[in-house]
Task: inverse folding
């Protein structure tokens, strides 16, 4: 494995320390801690203009419980493709992928949907909120997919929105909120099921410096509370201090 | 949540929702009005039958249309009257004739000769003129819906039928046949005088049954005793008359084509609306796929949206249909919409709306959740 790790100190946000969450994702004392996600020999090529171009070239990668790993690097280096493969949104040409020690790279589309629903939360660059749903209902969606009644899911969504400072915006539609607020709603949506893994694609790219930092503080705080592992794709060096480890990519591999 | 997602997404895009609803409403109104006009028109093919109290109609063998009767011996009424289960028999004459117009032209009319004290064969109620109008000498009763065709005859105005003087003694309302020729009612005996109809013959025998008699069995018995006649229950003969016109004119095909067009418009508009909604929200659907909704769940969202559009559109369409029916239906262009037509139309359009969700579903199937990470 060729990953360039840069341990960092974590900034804290003062206004969300009151959360009292029992992490469900942390391995119990009787189980040896391991990787939440492990990828081995991942290869991916795209055919562009009739020519196959290798985007990922035999990558190995792992994220441990509670760890926050950033994927950095120039455009076209394969960060987003890797994130898509890790999130089971894209299939690798070769290689093996394990999520909580379960091999998931050869699952059917239906099974991959189920794995994403159960174990992965997504934070997207452009928030990807449902325009017709209120902030509360956007956050509640993943919980209802787990079979929770809507009123229960809404209740938990409101709690989470309060934690991200959007209690007063719980009934607001995404179109009426600022980008920073939308991203906080998206973060709450990603975390409401307390997934083992959060995958974030350029979470601060559409935000100004202040809002970006606030979102990252919140993400760091909440993922710590939920013991959630995080993989963040970013170009933004201002948020590097929030990483436990930074993996810089270049030409389909790690530097 | 899927229900919440389905209806909130629909309501969020009111322009497209309106377009979809317009499609469904258009279909409902068109199908109901076309169906109602068709049934109204078909109802006219059996006006004389529906407006009589006879349970069985006996006519010449092979009778196919109540307005086109063929004479047979009137004395056969006694044979019919003697059969088991028959309570009462009355003869009825139907014959074409020509009525003179004030401007010297003539109008072909369907002359119907009813017995003065008829209990079974009087298909009209007099709304203008004395109730016993036909008892006057040379009297005829016309329908006020045919005023234009007959050049506005006044009460007690004198005209001629087949060159013989008659008097407009009364007017009924709403007794309109399928033919363009007006019904003119007169006394049974007078019809023979006016038309030269053989007095020994009649066009129909109208039968009233005893309370426990089996109508089909009596029909069989009549045909067994009188091989040259056909005997049908009133409903059978009404259907036979309607079927005659449907087959002869192809009217069912034209109305059916218009109805199909209405259904097609509904299908296309609902399908197109949902498809456009999906196209607008490809990114949202991709997000839902990314966070774990599977194809089946997304299909259920589409089906719910189709069902919402269908139910709301059908309800509004029904209300509009009732209003239009009240405003447009006339005795000449009757719009008859029975409950069964409403029910059938509603179910059909609901199913069509569900089918319409197949088009956007095909688009949703092609949505790759990976696109949400591609900016």
Result:
């Amino acid at each position: 494995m060729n990953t360039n790790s840069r341990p960092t100190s974590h900034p804290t946000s003062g206004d969300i320390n009151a959360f009292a969450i029992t992490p469900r994702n942390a391995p119990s004392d009787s189980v040896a801690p391991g990787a939440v996600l492990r990828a081995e020999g991942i290869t991916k090529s795209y055919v562009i203009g009739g020519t196959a171009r290798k985007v990922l070239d035999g990558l190995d990668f792992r994220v441990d419980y509670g760890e926050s790993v950033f994927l950095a690097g120039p455009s076209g280096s394969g960060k987003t493709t890797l994130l898509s493969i890790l999130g089971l949104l894209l299939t690798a040409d070769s290689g093996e992928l394990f999520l909580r020690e379960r091999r998931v790279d050869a699952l059917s589309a239906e099974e991959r949907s189920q794995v994403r629903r159960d174990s992965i939360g997504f934070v997207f660059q452009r928030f990807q909120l449902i325009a017709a749903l209120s902030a509360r209902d956007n956050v509640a969606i993943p919980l209802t997919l787990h079979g929770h009644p809507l009123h229960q899911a809404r209740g938990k969504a409101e709690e989470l929105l309060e934690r991200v400072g959007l209690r007063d915006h719980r009934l607001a539609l995404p179109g009426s909120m600022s980008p920073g607020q939308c991203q906080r709603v998206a973060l709450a949506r990603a975390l409401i099921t307390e997934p083992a893994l959060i995958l974030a694609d350029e979470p601060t790219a559409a935000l100004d410096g202040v809002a970006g930092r606030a979102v990252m503080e919140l993400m760091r705080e909440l993922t710590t509370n939920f013991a959630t592992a995080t993989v963040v794709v970013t170009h933004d060096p201002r948020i590097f201090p929030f990483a436990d480890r930074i993996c810089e990519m270049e030409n389909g591999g790690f530097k | 949540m899927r229900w919440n997602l389905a209806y909130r997404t629909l309501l969020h895009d009111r322009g497209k929702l309106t377009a979809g609803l317009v499609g469904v409403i258009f279909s409902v109104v068109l199908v109901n009005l076309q169906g109602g006009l068709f049934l109204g028109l078909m109802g006219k093919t059996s006006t004389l039958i529906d407006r009589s109290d006879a349970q069985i109609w006996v006519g010449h063998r092979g009778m196919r249309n109540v307005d086109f009767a063929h004479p047979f011996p009137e004395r056969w009424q006694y044979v019919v009257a003697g059969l088991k289960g028959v309570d009462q028999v009355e003869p009825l004459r139907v014959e074409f004739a020509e009525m003179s117009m004030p401007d010297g032209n003539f109008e072909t009319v369907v002359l119907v000769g009813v017995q003065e004290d008829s209990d079974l064969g009087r298909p009209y109620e007099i709304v203008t003129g004395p109730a016993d109008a036909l008892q006057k000498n040379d009297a005829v009763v016309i329908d006020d819906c045919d005023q234009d065709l007959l050049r506005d005859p006044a009460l007690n105005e004198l005209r001629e039928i087949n060159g013989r003087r008659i008097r407009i003694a009364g007017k009924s309302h709403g007794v309109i046949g399928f033919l363009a020729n007006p019904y003119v009612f007169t006394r049974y005996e007078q019809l023979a005088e006016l038309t030269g109809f053989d007095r020994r013959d009649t066009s129909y025998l109208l039968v009233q049954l005893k309370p426990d008699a089996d109508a089909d069995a009596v029909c069989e018995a009549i045909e067994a005793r009188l091989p040259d006649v056909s005997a049908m229950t009133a409903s059978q003969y009404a259907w036979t008359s309607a079927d005659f016109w449907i087959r002869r004119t192809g009217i069912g095909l034209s109305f059916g084509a218009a109805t199909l067009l209405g259904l097609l418009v509904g299908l296309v508009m609902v399908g197109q609306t949902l498809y456009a909604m999906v196209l607008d929200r490809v990114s949202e659907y991709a997000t839902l796929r990314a966070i774990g909704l599977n194809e089946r769940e997304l299909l259920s969202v589409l089906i719910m949206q189709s069902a919402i559009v269908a139910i709301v559109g059908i309800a509004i369409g029904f209300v509009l249909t009732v209003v239009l029916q009240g405003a447009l239906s006339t005795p000449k262009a009757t719009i008859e919409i029975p409950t069964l037509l409403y029910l059938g139309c509603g179910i059909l359009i609901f199913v069509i709306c569900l089918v319409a969700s197949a088009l956007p579903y095909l688009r949703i199937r092609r949505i790759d959740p990976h696109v949400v990470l591609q900016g």
In short: Helices of chain A lie at 79-86, 109-119, 135-145, 150-163, 179-191, 209-226. The domain at 64-89+112-249 of chain A is CATH 3.40.50.300 (Rossmann fold). Chain A touches chain B at residues 80, 83-84, 87, 89-90, 109-110, 113-114, 116-118, 121-122, 124-126, 128, 130-133, 137, 140-142, 144-145, 150, 153, 189, 201 (CB under 8 Å). Residues 1-24, 26-32 of chain A have pLDDT under 50 and may be disordered.
